[in-house]
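Lab notebook page, bench 4
Experiment: in silico fold of construct C2
Operator: M.H.
Input chain length: 126 residues
Purpose: comparison with the prior construct
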Amino acid sequence: QVQLVEPGGGLVQAGGSLRLSCAASGRTFRSYALGWFRQAPGKEREFLATISWTGGSTYYADSLKGRFTISRDNAKNTVYLQMNSPKPEDTAVYYCAANLNPMSPICTMQPHYNYWGQGTQVSVSS
């Protein structure tokens, strides 16, 4: 069992920066991969980024074009999403999720994620 809590989020100006965090509890944090997803109004939830158990491997959606960075601190049981130069179209509810499958530590598909946070709203003003 994994519990994921995402404090933070909020309002940010376009071109600024914002760091999202997601705190995990339950199963040993360094034993599973993590990902970030988002859902904009009227759209389906989409994959953003994922990071392996050790943090040594990451993978991003092409649409991010290097603006976002995923990282994890296994000592703090926390995964982060650094958002640089956000745009108004990045406005969405952001979710972190845990992937407990050791056979696919780098995965973009939502059904492979076993646990989800409650989501946090990020609004980017122009």
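Observations: The radius of gyration is 13 Å. The chain is about 0% helix and 50% strand.
Next step: discuss at group meeting.
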